[in-house]
Amino acid sequence: MTMKGLSRFVEALLSGRRPRPFPADDADAEALRVAIELRAARPGSNAPREEFITGLQRRLARDQGEPPRAPVRRFLLAGGAVGAAGAAAGVIAEHARIGARPGPGGGPLTPDLGVWHPVAAAAALPEGAVHGFAAGGVDGFVTRSGGRLRAVSGVCTHQGCRLTVHAGTRLRCPCHGALFALDGAVLQHRLKAPIPALPRLAVRQVNGMVEVYLPRG
Ligand code: FES
């Protein structure tokens, strides 16, 4: 597929329209998988229907003679909106490199190519405080409770809306009202299906600064 065609496909995907089908080679399929994950990671936007994602993956797998993959897992880490114009292959490749995987035993997400980003002065995060940050393309919250630092993604795991602090002790989704604890656990929602807890992020305090391990850049 040409770069122009790929951009058109991704633009359609980002704007929620159904892209025109085309025969995909390996490189196209990989770029499109990343585009789907980017689409799912955009805060403040409606994610594509699960059936659409699954159907697209099946078609890609069939075109390549592969068994169908499990539906895309949405980490919902990314914080900056990815504009359609920025969805050209260079941006796709950059975000493909970012990636993230849960730590051993389902611990905090660890970006593949991460660095420690300072997100707050330690003095600005006393016991019981909640501090929002945007760094490394990620929106999140750091908290200190019982002397322990925690960091979680600040993007709702339902459809990617940005969360807000509620009553100083909860994270609330303004879109459909899901409520999360500061450690990321789902406290309540009125959705038909369960939603995952917020991804946890590695956090530390060094030289008077609170740092979170996030994608580079
Ligand atoms: Fe639906 Fe958050 S986006 S509850």
TrEMBL record:
Keyword Heme listed: no
Domain Rieske: 116-212
Keyword Iron: yes
Pfam families xrefs: Rieske (PF00355)
InterPro entries named among the record's database cross-references: Rieske_2Fe-2S, Rieske_2Fe-2S_sf
Domain of life assignment: Bacteria
Keywords: 2Fe-2S, Iron, Iron-sulfur, Metal-binding
The protein, known as: Rieske (2Fe-2S) protein
Organism of origin: Actinomadura graeca
